[in-house]
Amino acid sequence: CCLASAQAQTVKSDTVIHTDGNPIIRHEFTADPAAMVYKGKVYLYTGHDEAPANHNGYVMHNWTCFSSSDMVTWTEHPSPMNVKDFTWARDDAWASQVIERNGKFYWYVAVEHATIHGKAIGVGVSDSPTGPFKDARGTALVTNDMTKAVKHSWDDIDPSVIIDKDGQAYLFWGNGICYYAKLKPNMTELDGEIKTITLSHYTEAPWIHERNGWYYLSYAYEFPEKIAYAMSRNINGPWVYKGIINEIAGNSNTNHQAIINFKGKDYFIYHNGALVPDAGSFHRSVCIDYLYYNKDGTIKRVVMTSE
Ligand code: FUB
């Protein structure tokens, strides 16, 4: 019953949602959260699990966006981008992240390429954080034939982006191995070679952020996934493994985190399978819990809550 009703209630226009606990979105399944703080608001970008009941695999065709100025009341700005906006892509609106540069918003996404075998990374662009976004290139930014380190077809997924203090932008991504590369100032072309990072038990879902002169590279660890992290004083490494941030998230094999600071508090945003009991790994829901740092910059383990 509940699975069908969560799927049926997809919001079609901007709608206000009041959150009284985790999962924060309950009228639809949301996955792979990425968050951006911009002008006093948090913009939360998610994928959208649409698999039929008992379907064993991801069915994901579009991304959605939510905004909030207090982390409790969210407005949904539904589907500012669809996998069909990338004419070179077949399907699979997988994990993504948005960043602002010079008043434009760049949305890096993983999709299945229509003609080059495997997953690929594209980039959408908009003048507004809530879209609509359009394909910024007309072609993929990263394709499977550019990354030879891993032989499987889904290694080019889960983009995470950062603009360093000197203005240099970097893209991190990868399943099975963590890749990274510089981006040109236009944010739509790689600049130079694709490099790899060795991380303990790395699976996927890199999230890069900086705080007080430390760079943090958090990622999905093993499978089913925990979330672990490494720290470095330099964005080019060396990265030092620091441990687990989050345990396996309930009945979801994946966990996929974003970490932000908003109005003086730190947040760990992730997904689990808690919205509909037994719905499992392909009907996921975004949750938010507090994240705390120790004095030396290391991260305390997250306590997952339903509050
Ligand atoms: O949502 C599809 C895939 O599942 C993502 O790309 C991974 O990070 C995992 O969450």
From TrEMBL:
Domain of life the protein comes from: Bacteria
Site for Important for catalytic activity, responsible for pKa modulation of the active site Glu and correct orientation of both the proton donor and substrate, residues: D158
Keywords: Carbohydrate metabolism, Glycosidase, Hydrolase, Polysaccharide degradation, Signal, Xylan degradation
Active-site residues, as the UniProt record annotates them: D32, E204
GO biological process: xylan catabolic process
Gene3D superfamilies found in the cross-reference section: Glycosyl hydrolase domain, family 43
GO function terms (MF aspect): hydrolase activity, hydrolyzing O-glycosyl compounds
Any Pfam family matching the protein: Glyco_hydro_43
Family as reported in the entry's similarity comment: Belongs to the glycosyl hydrolase 43 family.
PANTHER family tied to this protein: ENDO-1,4-BETA-XYLANASE, PUTATIVE (AFU_ORTHOLOGUE AFUA_2G04480)-RELATED
Entry protein name: Family 43 glycosylhydrolase
Organism listed in the record: Mucilaginibacter ginsenosidivorax
